[in-house]
Backbone:
């Protein structure tokens, strides 16, 4: 795969989706261009999707929040006759490398979570209006919506046919949302997930698979009526005006390095390492939310989030040999805090809220990144507020202690803000600090007492905010040895170990999707019964069934 | 009216499946039957329900005497459940289970696949009755009206046949599917029939003949492939249905043939040699040959769409599972598994129609469609013979498969009937020559006047050469109830 996958797009480039904005309601049509696959070798028939289709959807969801805050209800529907969505494209999956499949599923999962959470986070409720076949990933799209309507034409159905048809799982949240979100009884869920043709009509309601069925002749009318009801019941203020998400300022260098306005990614392919440096704000924080809105996408705190998000996605998909991500910051911690404070003090303003919610999602994206993550807290760094969260998202952190010879930057310090105590929860619904100090909740309180102080190395170590603090004498060697050692371990074992250690604490639907469901799916994605030359996924479409090894493992 | 309470299923329903002993099926059929009768009664206009129609009723599966003819009111027609006799030691004729004993019970692993095929087949049967429900009002003769009703009741019986299989072999799911077969209606906005072509209405008799010739022939090919099923009850059911289906082809072929015959006669009588002198021909009250070609183009291409995509996973699965064979599977001499074989299909590349080799398994639909085209070409040849006999210089032909398609690689692309790619403007300009226009429809509609006198025929159509059941020319095929 030599082609770089770009996660940036805009409405003028969409090939697979259209949005019709109608005041507080947006009608979102999935109308996949068969010939518009990201890679050659497959056609996106029957509204099936690949990563390219999902990149557009993610862009739409993001723009819906920032550019169209007036929207309260989004109706997700098909632009094609007789099919809602047939799910992920099977030939694409059959031809894709294991790594691509895993990355694809992760990104689609993140996108599903994003529009699912849009109701709670942004007052934008997604409803699915299902007409025609809605199978596999198609039903998973619907499941991530918070209200599902199905036409009662005695042929449209919802289905999860992965197990009988393909010998894989409905892995984009399907199994988990059926039981945890829709709360379908487990035996009925078992039946549902084993029948190819799925369930239609009243039974789909009885089994809790959809919220409502409506007569086919009145379906569109009932859907719009329901959308209007939800919009008028919404607590979200009306008449908001959005900001434009302008194109990112971004340059790629030959050696793989990427330069954004406030994020710099230096790639050292030989060492299997990338260093990601976020620069703090150079301008003072806007005085008011009106000033913030006027800055729009130029506001540092939004820009940094967008650039960090794009950099992480780029590294995940396009730099797969890079096993270690080194995260650094440079700038003034107090300034970072000032920029965050404007948002925290104006949470009831839609844009302030959106930016905070976006930081929450970006930080979750960091949590979910299957690379060894290390934070290097150098002198002159600005791990403060949202950037301090990165310290607890990573697997280890190293912090400079005392003065270094020839280094006249301000001494390394970490600054906590009220945001670190609830604004950016992880997938397990706990803050990163609460997760970090699961056995010593008093440590969270001790940290909270130090909000706003520039905590230098010794204090940070005492509070447990970093792994190691090292002085000038030890620093270079210790950091080098760690990075070299890390690069020598099996990447599989690293991914597994890190994913298990990162998410202490309670399970949520989200952790179950990214943990249990994804792990099982990725296991199945390695097994010959699915992906071997005689496996179901390889044989799909040939007419010949998968040849299964019947041994239970 | 049929006494619904005291149906004696062995006397009222001709069957060779031991219906009266089969408690499970009886119970299901008893529940389903009233819904079916309601469906029928709501469908066909009341005066025809009350009329006595000279119908053929299948009473056994004996090839020598499987049917009897008599006057019957359609709601009292004895829709039977008849399976062709079991072939001893029959084996699965194709796919990965080739050579194993044919299944007498539904194999669990293929239950859903089988059920879906039966439901789709079952869905088309009543659909055509719905599409044709008002045609009797404009029947060109009692003979034709009778043929229409014969086709209708037999489509009804084919629905019964599929419902029997659903009730007998598919438990509760099967019963629900059987109910939904009555719930969906052709052209309904509420619950349309499953296949697009079965939601178009049949507005006139030429359409009806074209439909029975081209679209019922698709049904015949589907039945032929299901008759090769490794699931023996399905195979036996379809084999027997094919004996009735032949009559539908006959109605279509002779209907179009008689229309052509009449047109040619009238042209000759009036000294018209140019078949494109359509104004004069139409003024004489017959349908010009170019318009017949246009109707043919329309119905043939709609029927091609029924065969689905050129490359189809579902068809491949069904063949490999041994659920659905090829046309005349048992007479083919390959390995009947096709795992290494290829087949030539049309594809669309760089704006052109090209032929390509693809794995034979995935091209099962196309193979059946090619067999269909060959089968359909036969009647076209016979129609041309009629034209030739009258010395008219005109030849009907089947259009290229790239023309006017809604499904497959040529869907919504611009090709002329000979298969040449054309620009959008050329296509727009060509359409009135290639497909019936609204004005053509108006003209045909103007000819659709009922002709209810025994032995009399509407001007635009010639009488048949022989009567049904060898009845004389003035036989009263339908005793109309005109209350």
Residues:
């Amino acid at each position: 795969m030599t082609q770089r996958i770009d996660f940036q797009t805009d409405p003028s480039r969409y090939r697979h989706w259209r949005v019709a904005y109608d005041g507080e309601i947006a009608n979102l049509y999935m109308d996949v261009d068969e010939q518009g696959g990201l890679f050659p070798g497959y056609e996106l028939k029957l509204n099936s999707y690949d990563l390219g289709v999902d990149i557009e959807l993610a862009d739409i969801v993001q723009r819906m929040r920032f550019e169209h805050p007036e929207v309260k209800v989004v109706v997700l529907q098909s632009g094609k006759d007789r099919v809602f969505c047939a799910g992920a494209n099977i030939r694409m999956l059959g031809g894709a490398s294991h790594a691509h499949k895993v990355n694809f599923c992760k990104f689609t999962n993140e996108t599903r979570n994003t529009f699912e959470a849009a109701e709670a986070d942004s007052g934008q409720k997604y409803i699915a209006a299902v007409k025609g076949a809605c199978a596999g990933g198609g039903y998973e799209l619907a499941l991530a919506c918070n209200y599902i309507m199905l036409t009662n034409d005695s042929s449209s159905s919802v289905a999860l046919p992965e197990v009988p048809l393909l010998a894989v799982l409905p892995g984009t949240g399907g199994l988990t949302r059926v039981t945890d979100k829709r709360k379908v009884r487990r035996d009925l869920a078992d039946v549902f997930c084993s029948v190819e043709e799925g369930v239609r009509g009243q039974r789909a309601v009885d089994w809790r698979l959809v919220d409502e069925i409506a007569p086919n002749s009145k379906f569109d009318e009932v859907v719009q009526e329901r959308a209007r009801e939800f919009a008028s019941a919404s607590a979200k203020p009306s008449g908001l005006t959005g900001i434009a998400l302008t194109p990112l300022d971004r340059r790629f260098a030959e050696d793989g390095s990427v330069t954004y306005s406030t994020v710099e990614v230096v790639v050292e392919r030989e060492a299997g390492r990338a260093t990601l440096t976020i620069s703090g704000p150079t301008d003072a924080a806007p005085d008011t939310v009106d000033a913030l809105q006027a800055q729009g996408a130029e506001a540092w705190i939004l820009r940094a989030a967008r650039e960090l998000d794009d950099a992480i996605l780029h590294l995940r998909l396009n730099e797969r040999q890079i096993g270690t991500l080194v995260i650094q910051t440079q700038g003034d911690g107090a300034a970072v805090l000032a920029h965050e404070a404007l948002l925290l003090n104006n949470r009831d303003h839609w844009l302030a809220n959106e930016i905070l919610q976006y930081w929450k999602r970006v930080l979750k994206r960091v949590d979910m990144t299957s690379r060894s993550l290390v934070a290097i807290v150098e002198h002159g760094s600005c791990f403060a507020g949202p950037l301090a969260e990165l310290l607890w998202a990573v697997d280890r952190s190293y912090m400079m202690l005392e003065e270094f010879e020839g280094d006249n930057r301000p001494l390394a310090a970490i600054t906590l803000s009220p945001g670190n105590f609830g604004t950016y929860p992880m997938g397990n619904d706990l803050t990163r600090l609460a997760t970090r100090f699961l056995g010593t909740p008093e440590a969270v309180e001790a940290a909270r007492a130090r909000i706003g102080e520039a905590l230098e190395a010794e204090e940070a170590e005492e509070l447990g905010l970093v792994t190691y603090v090292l002085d000038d004498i030890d620093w270079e060697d210790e950091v080098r040895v760690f990075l070299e050692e890390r690069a020598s371990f099996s990447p599989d074992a690293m991914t597994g170990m890190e994913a298990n250690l990162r998410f202490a604490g309670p399970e949520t639907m989200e952790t179950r999707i990214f943990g249990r469901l994804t792990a099982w799916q990725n296991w199945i994605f390695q097994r010959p019964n699915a992906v071997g030359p005689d496996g179901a996924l390889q044989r799909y479409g040939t007419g010949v069934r998968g040849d299964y090894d019947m041994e239970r493992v | 009216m049929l006494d619904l309470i005291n149906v004696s299923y062995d006397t009222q329903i001709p069957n060779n499946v031991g219906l009266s002993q089969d408690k499970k099926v009886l119970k299901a059929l008893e529940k389903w039957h009233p819904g079916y009768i309601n469906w029928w009664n709501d469908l066909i206009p009341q005066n025809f329900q009350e009329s006595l129609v000279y119908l053929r009723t299948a009473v056994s599966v004996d090839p020598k005497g499987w049917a009897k003819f008599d006057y019957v009111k359609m709601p009292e027609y004895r829709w039977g459940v008849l399976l062709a006799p079991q072939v001893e030691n029959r084996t699965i004729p194709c796919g990965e289970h080739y050579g194993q004993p044919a299944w007498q019970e539904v194999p669990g692993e293929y239950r859903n696949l089988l059920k879906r095929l039966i439901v789709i087949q079952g869905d088309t049967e009543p659909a055509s009755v719905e599409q044709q429900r008002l045609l009797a009002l404009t029947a060109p003769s009692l003979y034709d009206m009778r043929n229409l009703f014969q086709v209708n009741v037999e489509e009804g019986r084919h629905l019964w046949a599929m419902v029997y299989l659903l009730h007998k072999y598919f438990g509760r799911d099967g019963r629900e599917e059987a109910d939904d077969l009555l719930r969906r209606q052709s052209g309904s906005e509420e619950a349309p029939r499953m296949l697009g072509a079965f939601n178009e209405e049949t507005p006139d008799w030429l359409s009806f003949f074209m439909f029975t010739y081209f679209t019922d022939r698709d049904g015949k090919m589907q039945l032929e492939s299901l008759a090769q099923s490794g699931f023996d009850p399905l195979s036996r059911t379809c084999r027997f249905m094919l004996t009735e289906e032949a009559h539908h082809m006959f109605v279509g072929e002779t209907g179009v043939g008689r229309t052509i015959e009449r047109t040619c006669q009238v042209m000759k009588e009036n000294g018209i040699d140019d078949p494109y002198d359509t104004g004069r021909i139409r003024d004489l009250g017959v349908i010009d040959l170019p318009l017949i070609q246009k109707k043919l183009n329309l119905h043939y291409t709609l029927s091609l769409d029924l065969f689905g995509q050129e490359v189809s996973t579902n068809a491949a699965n069904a063949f490999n599972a041994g659920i659905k064979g090829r046309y005349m599977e048992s007479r083919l001499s390959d390995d009947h598994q096709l795992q290494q074989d290829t087949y030539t299909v049309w594809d669309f590349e760089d704006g052109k129609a090209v032929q390509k080799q693809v794995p034979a398994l995935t091209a099962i639909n196309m193979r059946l469609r090619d067999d269909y085209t060959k089968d359909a070409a036969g009647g076209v040849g016979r129609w041309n013979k009629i034209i030739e006999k009258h010395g008219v210089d005109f030849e009907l032909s089947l259009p290229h498969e790239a023309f006017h398609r809604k499904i497959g690689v040529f869907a919504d692309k611009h090709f002329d009937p000979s298969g040449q790619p054309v620009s959008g403007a050329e296509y727009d300009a060509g359409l009135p020559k290639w497909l019936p226009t609204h004005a053509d429809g108006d003209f045909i509609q103007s000819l659709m006047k009922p002709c209810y006198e025994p032995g009399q025929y509407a001007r635009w159509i010639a009488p048949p050469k022989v009567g049904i059941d060898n009845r004389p020319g003035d036989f009263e095929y339908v005793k109309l109830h005109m209350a």
